[in-house]
């Protein structure tokens, strides 16, 4: 089951935070460990930027771990990272940030086109 329904903060906000805080700073072909991604996002959970709904089912660490894992599955599908083992990934495709509104709209359209070929996050097994 997807963890996204447990996250009150909109996906584009927390996903952008993770992209900019982590991947945008990495050189290509750099290894990144899942616990580093979790640590980077935890800062924003603790300061209230990222808010979870009532999380009685899982503890906060498990929520963050599942959130990062599912997002990594999406980045794998987009070809931005490559899975090396259970917890390590290789950053292989650079993050490109739009420089204009027109470029942002084009990037949004490209992502919309990819949606049809992206696996349903609800069916990804851990």
Automatic annotation (TrEMBL):
<dbReference type="Pfam" id="PF25166">
    <property type="entry name" value="CoiA_C"/>
</dbReference>
<feature type="domain" description="Competence protein CoiA C-terminal">
    <location>
        <begin position="4"/>
        <end position="103"/>
    </location>
</feature>
<protein>
    <recommendedName>
        <fullName>Competence protein CoiA C-terminal domain-containing protein</fullName>
    </recommendedName>
</protein>
<dbReference type="InterPro" id="IPR057252">
    <property type="entry name" value="CoiA_C"/>
</dbReference>
């Amino acid at each position: 089951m997807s963890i996204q329904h447990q996250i009150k903060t909109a996906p584009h906000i927390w996903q952008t935070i993770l992209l900019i805080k982590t991947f945008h700073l990495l050189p290509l072909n750099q290894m990144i460990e899942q616990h580093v991604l979790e640590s980077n996002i935890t800062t924003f959970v603790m300061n209230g930027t990222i808010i979870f709904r009532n999380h009685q089912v899982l503890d906060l660490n498990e929520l963050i771990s599942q959130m990062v894992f599912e997002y990594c599955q999406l980045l794998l599908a987009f070809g931005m990272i490559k899975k090396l083992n259970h917890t390590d990934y290789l950053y292989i495709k650079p993050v490109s940030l739009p420089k204009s509104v027109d470029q942002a709209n084009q990037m949004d359209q490209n992502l919309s086109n990819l949606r049809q070929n992206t696996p349903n996050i609800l069916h990804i097994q851990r």
